[in-house]
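Example (one chain per record):
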Amino acid sequence: MKHVVFEGLPAVGKSEALELLARFYPERVRVLPELVKEIVNARRLDLFRDRSELTAALVDALPARAAQIREITDAGFLCLEESHLGVHWAYAHALEDRGFLETYPSIEASLPRPDAYVRLALPVAASAARQHARSTPAFAVDRSPLEAMLGHLDRWHAERGTSLLSIDADRPAHAVLAEIEERLSLRYAASSEVPAETFDVLFLLGRPASGKSEFIDFMTTRSVDARAESFHIGPFDVLDDFPILWALFEDDDLWEALDRPRLYSRRCNWNYAITDPELWPFLIAKLDRAAATRLAQTDRRNRETVIVEFSRGGPSGYADALSAFSDDLLRRAAILYVSVSFEESWRRNLARYDEDDKGGILTHSVPREEMEKTYGTDDWFELAPDGVGTIDVRGIPVPYATMGNEPESTDPNVLGPRYRSALDPLFDACGRR
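Predicted structure:
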């Protein structure tokens, strides 16, 4: 199942159950709150008096909600949604809301079709008692409309032949939640359980603004199962040398403020340029130490992946950097080089620069002078002339793949196949070494 909708009387515990599922299954589940309640709260509507305005707002919000559901399910998550417009249709009958009932046939065909509906079943009297205890009068519904609504909702399901699972919610919370987990095939995965085979260490290389951060963002939005199955990346940590470098730039600012000479950099067009070339091997040493520490803490039964991200340029930039890593790290590593031209790298570098946050690490932009000096050329294609292969580093064969990342795209339907076309053969190459 990819999309399941929960329904039930007020105060039955839908929100609470879904919140717990999202908390305990963050790698499997994403939750969407009740659309009607979201709109009522956002627009400060009266749920019972402002029915016409609510209907118009619901119609406007449906395309965005459908897009949210697609985005979640496309990423490999189970989408759990609280309530649906069939419930609203049933309430409209009970409350004699003719406006919504006349509108509903025109929108029903475009509504998402969940794989299943889960009803948390509760006696109307128990719902009334829980509503009183909850003390939220803006959403309180009396017993008579609730009884009428349930009858109309049963008819709605019967006419459409939906898959409706009923769970008794008039019992202890742990029992209700346990049955929900069982019905949805959600089994808590302890840290010792083994997911699919994944990369151990992945070096993520490429010019500034080549798309390395976008790659990481994309992987962050995939479920752990979908990511491991499609891209061979498990639960992951990212080690990036740029925050280390930026901290040194800021240290230089502090020395300068104390009338002391800068140690590593000079100011350059609202940014910085490196003055000490020994910073490059220093940064690799820092990455190597951090990776060794992280790997020592990692139980490979979890198939976790350590991603080591950096950029280098010059006639021997990548050769020097790779040769500075420890033998243990190299033996466990594979390399993905994200390839864009220098001019494309410069264009994207300018595009991500925030004029209002010139000094921010998240909006940094490498000056043109520094870009040409440091990244105008690099030695990647001398080291790795083929699309997929191995690089010999001190006698250690390290698998690599080069992935073209032009034209630029943010569309997951473009990026997914692009990443997979490089990572699949790279993972196969890891198995052959």
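Caption: The chain has a mean pLDDT of 90.
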